[in-house]
TrEMBL record:
SMART domains: Cupin_1 (SM00835). Mn(2+) binds at H52, H54, E59, H100. The keyword Transmembrane helix does not apply. PROSITE patterns: GERMIN. It comes from Helianthus annuus. One of its GO terms (molecular function) is manganese ion binding. Belongs to the germin family. It is found in: Secreted, Extracellular space, Apoplast. This is Germin-like protein. The lineage of its organism: Eukaryota, Viridiplantae, Streptophyta, Embryophyta, Tracheophyta.
Length: 160
């Protein structure tokens, strides 16, 4: 038995064309959530795309409809922000492991397709990880790291 990311691979003799098909990208996802976005993963496992990183993959984003502000930040010590306004047909690359984001700045819906260079890219959403860890990261550590009051840390943690 061969596993890919913990999922049993189908015997090559039993593979059909439907095994390579995903239908549904024409259906708009639910964007009435706290960040106003929806990501439809098309993998074997099935507003704003907030700052996140893929520790094991480079991402290539292609805008199909609408316009998106995209950006990424280089690592320490520079922490340089690169941003670009993308329109229909534009392609942007987010280097592996760097924190990046997308925001719909258009007047209508935006649709983009992302491809990742690894079948198991991982995703770390920064705010969720930092303020929603289980158990919580100590409030004093976060207050010092973000240079904010402990009460602000408590308020943010309560949302996660």
């Amino acid at each position: 038995m061969i596993l890919v990311n913990g999922v049993v691979c189908k015997d090559a003799k039993l593979v059909k064309a439907d095994d390579f098909l995903f239908r549904g990208l024409h259906v708009m996802g639910n964007t009435s959530n706290d960040v106003g976005s929806n990501v439809t993963a098309v993998t074997v496992a099935e507003g704003i795309n907030p700052p996140h990183t893929h520790p094991r993959a480079t991402e290539v984003l292609t805008v199909i409809e609408g316009s998106l502000l995209v950006g990424f930040v280089t690592s320490n010590p520079d922490n340089r922000l690169f941003t670009k306004m993308l329109e229909k047909g534009d392609v942007f690359v987010f280097p592996q492991g760097l924190i990046h984001f997308q925001k719909n700045l258009g007047y209508g819906h935006a649709l983009a397709i992302a491809g990742l260079s690894n079948q198991n890219p991982g995703v770390i959403t920064i705010a969720n990880v930092v303020f929603g860890s289980n158990p919580d990261i100590a409030e004093d550590i976060l207050a010092k790291a973000f240079q904010i009051d402990i009460n602000v840390v408590r308020q943010i943690q309560s949302k996660f």
